[in-house]
Design brief:
Blueprint (H helix, E strand, L loop, with lengths): L20 E8 L23 H10 L4 E4 L1 H4 L2 H12 L4 E6 L23 H19 L5 E4 L6 H9 L4 E2 L24 E2 L5 E2 L4 E4 L6 H8 L2 H4 L3 H8 L3 E4 L7 H13 L4 E7 L14 H21 L3 E2 L2 H12 L4
Helix pairs in contact: 1-10, 4-5, 9-10
Length: 338
Amino acid sequence: MIGDRLPFAGGVTLPAASRPQLFVVIDTEEEFDWSAPFSRANTSVSAMAHIGRAQSIFDRFGIKPTYVIDYPVAASAEGSERLREFWHDGRCSIGAHLHPWVTPPLTEDVNGPNSFASNLPETLQLEKIRELSITIENRFDARPTIFKAGRYGLGPSTVRVLDELGYQVDMSVTPRLDFTDIGGPTFTDFDTSPFFLTERMLEIPCTVDFAGWLRRAGTSLHRIASSSLLQKFRALGVLRRSGMLNRIMLSPEGNTLDELCELATVLTAAGCRTFTLTFHSPSVEPGHTPYVRTTADLDGFLNAIERFCDFFLSDLGGIPTTPSAFRTQALAARSLPS
């Protein structure tokens, strides 16, 4: 529920001299109109025929992306055929991604608040995530242990369900973002630092933070600039264009290559050593997301991914990793049982 705090079982401290590590997480899901109401009828996964456009980039850099898969993708051969190829070749990791409105059992009302799994009764969350997990296991011959909530709908009850089902890594937290005005959770008090939700389950947040010379006051300043009064004067745009403050997500969707590189540079200098590059699978084909409408958009989208990976691994001296490999590293540092 809104306002409930996530459990915290300890932070993860990496040596200052350690190299930055890059995760790539792809929200692998059905296509739907992002501006329309949620509908259980939207289960098409035609864009998955083109997922190799992104995978080929990661192959060139030796990066193993994590495809967090939702039910329409896992339940259809069309959605999972290429991923099965990547998986069996050892070129990717597979996780789970919950869109409640298209995941059985389909018993809740379809509306905005219920699109956040954390708003559903805990028993229903358990049933949906269990069904999703079994479907992925049947398709890939392996039980998923990595989870990312659709719409970032993670709450304490979701953590309990994930722990019960044996999940080891969650990647749902979006630092500096607040979804309470649309019925979701808030993560404004979080930063990009990984931490343990339970003794065994690690949280690896999305990489979202502030750049600009006022970044240290980013949370409060961004909140003030987002007020209804200052929105009339486009205060956020003024802050961004002036170089004072810019909230950036490490994603080629809605962010420029320069912004991605700036965020990675700023956070590395501030001591951050874990970075998550993320996007939605339908963006690999024009016409399915607001970010990739045309062939030119697609070219720019793929170019930004490729050039950022090159920048991170070359200019920043970073290394690619996977959520499970990093969890092993974090557990060893804590001397906890795996």
